[in-house]
Every structure is written in structure tokens, then in C-alpha cells.
């Protein structure tokens, strides 16, 4: 029976660096973002459910999901964001359980989920690892990565739980304000303990 590790953090704190490294070490990763993209793909029941709730304005000309249009709706309206989660969540959970069943023989499986706490996936995890960094670094990374203004970047950060709250609820915190090698040294230490 695999041990499920919930891996999360704030937007642009470096969770993907940790997730990618764990995958390179042979740890199976269930990527909640990838699962979300799969269940929202063109022609899926998940996308049809979103269209039922938000209308065809969230579709591109080719009938695939226009993530930018959907983002404009949900990141400016907390009620719409809740509706999005409520609509797509059952499809995401089914896909996660399916992947988890496929990894039962692995010692560890990591559920890489940016909204592990916000969407209630934390209850699926046996242990929680939070990737954290200082607020200035987080803001700078997000603005650079997503080409956002300081106002839009702050809005995205504020749509998630405060990073400190996530850290308070974590079993392990990986600090990622410094170099990548410093971060990965912490991951190695944690992984060595888990694999004992």
C-alpha cells in the first residue's frame, strides 16, 4: 500500500522544482494540474459541465477551453471560483483515485496539488509537504513567470490560502528562497527519512 504525500505550496514558491526532482528519483507523481487539464479537455464531460455553468464564453473557436477567459471570470469573483471548484472537483477526484490505484505497489506516491488545502485534497494525504519561500521572492517569480503586473500577481497570490497557514499545517516544510541546490538538499534529507 503506497503512502500518499500531499505536496503543495503557494503559487510560484517552487513546488514544481521539488516535484520534478522527486519524479527524477523514481517517485510516482500525480500532478493535480495535469489531471485538471485532462478532465477539462475538449469533448470531455468535465468541460461540458463547465460550459453548463459558465456558458460558451469560456470556449475557444475550436470548442476547447479558453483558460484565459475562464481565469478572467474566476480570479475576479470568489463566488465564481467556488462554482468552478464545485463543478470540476468530482472529475479531478475520480482521476486522482484512478492514478492512486495504479501506484499501490510504490513505497511513496506524491500528489502534487497547488490547492491541496483549498480544495480539500489534504484529507487524501498521509503526510503534507509544503514548499515555501519569502513573499518578495514569490511575487517576483510570479510576475516574471506569468508576465503579470504587480496588481495581478498579488491578486493571484491572495486567491490562495496564506502561505504561512499552509506551513503551519505541514508535516514538512521545504524552504525555497535560496539556490536550487539548497532546496534539493532538503528534499534529499526528507526523502532519505521517508525511504528508511
TrEMBL record:
Signal peptide: none annotated. Its main location: cytoplasm. The keyword Ribosomal protein does not apply. It holds the Pfam family CoaE. Pathway: Cofactor biosynthesis; coenzyme A biosynthesis; CoA from (R)-pantothenate: step 5/5. Transmembrane segments: none annotated. One of its GO terms (cellular component) is cytoplasm. Its EC number is 2.7.1.24. It is found in: Cytoplasm. Catalyzes the phosphorylation of the 3'-hydroxyl group of dephosphocoenzyme A to form coenzyme A. Belongs to the CoaE family. This is Dephospho-CoA kinase. It comes from Lentilactobacillus otakiensis DSM 19908 = JCM 15040. The gene is coaE.
Amino acid at each position: 500500500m503506497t503512502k500518499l504525500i500531499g505536496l503543495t505550496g503557494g503559487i510560484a514558491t517552487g513546488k514544481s522544482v521539488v516535484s520534478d526532482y522527486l519524479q527524477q528519483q523514481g517517485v510516482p507523481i500525480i500532478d493535480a494540474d495535469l489531471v485538471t487539464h485532462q478532465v477539462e479537455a475538449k469533448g470531455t464531460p468535465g468541460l461540458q459541465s463547465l460550459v453548463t455553468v459558465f456558458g460558451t464564453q469560456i470556449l475557444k473557436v475550436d470548442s476547447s477551453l479558453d483558460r484565459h477567459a475562464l481565469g478572467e471570470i474566476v480570479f475576479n469573483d470568489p463566488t465564481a471560483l467556488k462554482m468552478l471548484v464545485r463543478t470540476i472537483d468530482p472529475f479531478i477526484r475520480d482521476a486522482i483515485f484512478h492514478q492512486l490505484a495504479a501506484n499501490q505497489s510504490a513505497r511513496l506516491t506524491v500528489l502534487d496539488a497547488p490547492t491541496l488545502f483549498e480544495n480539500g485534497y489534504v484529507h487524501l494525504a498521509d503526510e503534507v509537504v509544503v514548499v515555501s519561500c519569502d513573499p518578495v521572492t514569490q511575487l517576483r517569480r510570479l510576475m516574471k513567470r506569468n508576465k503579470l503586473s504587480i496588481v495581478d500577481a498579488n491578486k493571484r497570490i491572495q486567491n490562495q490560502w496564506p502561505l504561512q497557514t499552509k506551513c503551519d499545517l505541514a508535516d514538512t516544510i521545504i524552504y525555497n528562497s535560496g539556490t536550487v541546490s539548497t532546496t534539493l538538499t532538503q528534499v534529499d534529507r526528507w526523502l532519505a527519512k521517508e525511504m528508511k
